Amino acid sequence: MDPLRELQGAVQAGRLTRREVLERAAALGLTAPVIASLLAACAGGQQATPTAAPAAQTPVAVPTPTQAAAATPQPQPITPAAQRGGGGTLRLLWWQAPTIINPHLAQGTKDFDASNIVLEALAYFDAEDKLVPRLAEEVPSVEKGTLDPEGRWVIWKLRKNVKWHDGQPFTAKDVKFTWEYVTDEKTTATTIASYRAIENVEIVDDHTVKVTFKQPNPAWFEPFVGGFGLILPEHILREYKGEKARNAPFNLKPIGTGPYKVVDFKPGDVVVYEINQDYWQEGKPYFDRVELKGGGDATSAARAVLQTGEADWSWNLQVEAQILLQLEKAGQGKLVIAPGPNAERIMINFADPNTEKDGARAEPDVPHPFLTNKKIREAIALAIRRDVIAEQLYGPAGQVTANNLNAPARFKHPDLKWEFNLEKAAKLLDEAGAVDTNNDGVREYNGKPLQILYQTSINPIRQRTQEIVKAELEKLGFKVELKSIDASVFFSSDPGNPDTYGHFYADIEMYTNGPSNPFPLNWARRYHSKEVARKANNWAGVNITRYQNPEMDKLLDTLATEMNPDKQTELFRQVNWISVTDVVEIPLVHRNAVSAATKNLTGYQPSTWASDVWNIGDWRRQ
């Protein structure tokens, strides 16, 4: 049956709530008028007009200091749950298994998610893209005198009576220590880019910190907020800052302020949490125990929630659309679909993954033998059937895109287009001087064959994508070898593991990423030459392509201080333009966030900018 007609039938039969209608509409990419008619039917004939089509994503106004008071409403006092505990076990499935539970040393989303259950940030962007406090008492604002109108400083007032899991009080010392820990170059923290703008963190009193920036900072809310902002305990980690950071027992059994405590962790397998009976939010959490099981594959994770009921929540369901819809018909669970900021993309390695220097490969000062030629990179981009990948493999879970930065929507460059054209690609290779000298079907450039190692994590959709890309590249005269790596290894932060995406010991690689807040400078720094991943920083740099361009660096440095929203939009669009037209990364599919929940699970709030489990203390069983 046509998906739209199936949705219309479900609405008319009264089987869907308004929220479920919006989620399905987002997945199908429906327009605002169509969504309005569906909501009207859902409301029993009462006309309802959505503010925007969810799939298109409403542009988010960045809360600059002068707008903060109006743009960031203060939340109502937290309403206690009916009771703390008594909910039994909450079973979570992450088909990419966590390998570390210290977010500031992590590189994979799975590790940030595992950390979010036990650690907390000062604030988060919620499901409505509003900044809401957690360990902070309130969101800073110009009106309250806690935010500088020029973005040079911000004052965070912290909650009192919050305790770490070992009973020690949470204070301003912990916030300052987190900054010191992350910005110590010897720590090689993966989140360091989000904290470099800070000049100083001053402890005003036990529950107040003043963060002063080196220059006006439009992203004043970036440090200490969201997944990159989880606060660390000073009394636990003070001896493990710098070179000792990766040896801390904390990395496998952290002490946090969150609703759950880690009681057992088998890296690459499972994390077991138990309720924090002293959690500062009265009446929360509801579940007595949380089991986050990792590994396997996305299809099995979806089946465990939607069909067999073996789990309560499964994350990041990169599964073919028809399979997901078929599994949902079993009736055990439901798909949770929301607009996402992420894009599946192919990264180009500008360094040579086959030449070793000082015991490492793909070092930034050893250029790639042929991918540094722009015409060869352009030929690769022209040979990718993005429409086939989006429509046949992702369906309602994603839309083809020509932009590397897709959210907020105002930062997408309106003039970027994608094209599949093998004839044009072949001509570019000819112009580059890449020719088939041996008449064996493989072109050579400067005497070396155009041989590509193409790696990604193990996942059915990704392997099918690899096959589609390989088939077209080999028609052009490339020789392509495919490599699939277990997700727990590929997304590991282990500096001794050569198969991580950060090492990037391949010519091209593919995975999904996107920004973590509405001012996506932390994401865009992936193109800055200062952030190059290399042996010297334990491959923790966010610039894994080893791309270096003074023009791009200048754009990003300007964005770090630009306070005018209109100029910010233009600058981010330029970043988008260069990243695509210089073929640093090749965007394929703008993915929706697709998870699955058992039908009796409530309280979750999928957020564009936060972990699935960012508010796990609110989750309950109906």
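The above is record 1. Record 2 follows with the same two-line structure.
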Amino acid sequence: MFSLLHQRLDRLTGTAGDAVLQGGKKGMEKESLRVSPEGRISTRPHPAGLGSALTHPWVTTDFSEALLELVTPPHATSWETLSFLCDLHQFVYERIGDEMLWATSMPCIVESDASVPIAEFGSSNSGRMKHVYRLGLSHRYGRVMQAISGVHFNYSLPESFWQIYQSCEGSTETAVTFRNAAYFDLLRNYRRLGWIVLYLFGASPAVCKSFLCGNRTELPEWDPWTVYGPHATTLRMSDVGYRNANQAGVNPGMNQLADYVAALDSATRTPLEAYEAIGTRSDGEWRQLNTSVLQIENEYYGFIRPKQITRSGERPISALKRRGVEYVEIRSLDVSPLDPAGVSQNEMRFLEAFLILCMLSDSPKLSDAEAREYDGNHLRAAVRGREPGIELTIDGKRRSLQAWSIEIIESMRPVCELLDSGQSEPCYQASLDLQLAKVDDPGRTPSAQILETMAQRESSFFEFAMDLSERYRDYFRALPPIEPSRLRLFEDEVASSIQRQKDMEATDSMAFEEFLRRYYAG
């Protein structure tokens, strides 16, 4: 499937030179639980020193009041992105007192479902909607599952690339139509090949028993407090984590934007009996936004999403319909316990090159049967990825995960050579070699290294994660002060975000029910 990739690269470089792929925008969203010095989920409100979780662009919360989400603006280099993320960590640590950020995707000790506080966003309609949506998630899936942390990688090809690519392809479509189709080529191939991301970067092979809340599991015991997958890469992306039976019937097609949008819109308007039993309100208190399969389209947990920047009050699918795909968001990444900020430059470099490979390679339309087959590969890589001789399926035929991984990585080399062109060091090619070493030796994968460390120290998952959380707390607190202009930027945004929330609450006079009606109509 990679012959077309090489043809397209030849046309692109012949037209625009070796730097044609450089400068794509990269952004990160990194979630972390705030925990007490004893490693329990924080019960304190979102720290005022971090600004408004509703309106701050870079420091917000996800499901829980204790689940911080740090968001970087998009940058042209992975170094700028990681530097901004590290500065955010340092800024947060200066304002959370004696608390820590949990260093792994899977949570610390969970005492009960009620021990996970749902995020609050104030009294404005937008803030109420965010809170009620999370109430709905708690009723549908439970709070504990929503305490899982992840990392999202946002990427767009450089703006200068698009006209060149369209010209090389001989397309006479509008620029937006062409770009949408190209990004959906990427999305389909990520669904075909994205299991390799779980294998290479999965970092959740073990979990604290308390996370299971007494539910039975087939996972073996590591010790009295821990269960694990002997060959797992990411239990977060398995049935233990985000997978949910009620979403099994939601299959937003990756063949074209119109089908994708229509499927998600339908899911937000189609009632589900189990959710009708919950109801939207009880004794005058909201329980969920609606009783549909999805309350809003973001409830659907896909491995990757097409994205467009939304405007005030605009639904994500409406933004996509109006202005097309602006970038893609990879959602299947674990927080890396091996990196203080939860992600590394080498990971970002590999992901950038991999997404380019997915876009420029042949990408036939996907049938529902093929989509299910490829989703099965993701699950197999998550649960059994390091199992000796493990095989995946393609077109109904079995294929070695190792052999398929080598083919994918080697096919990325010309992409990495172009991304390295004119640079002082071949960093993209070096990142590729690091990933190839994990294929040659599964013991080098993050998941294997985590279990090896736990074995050497004879530690439970909690003890392993607690130790790293304390180390990274000390690391960020010991760094030199944040550069003054960056610090002023952060401090100004704290004050501005608080004022924006106050302004919203002071001017918001519309009834909540009418606000929701207009939101879904838009």
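The chain has one domain: 3-521.
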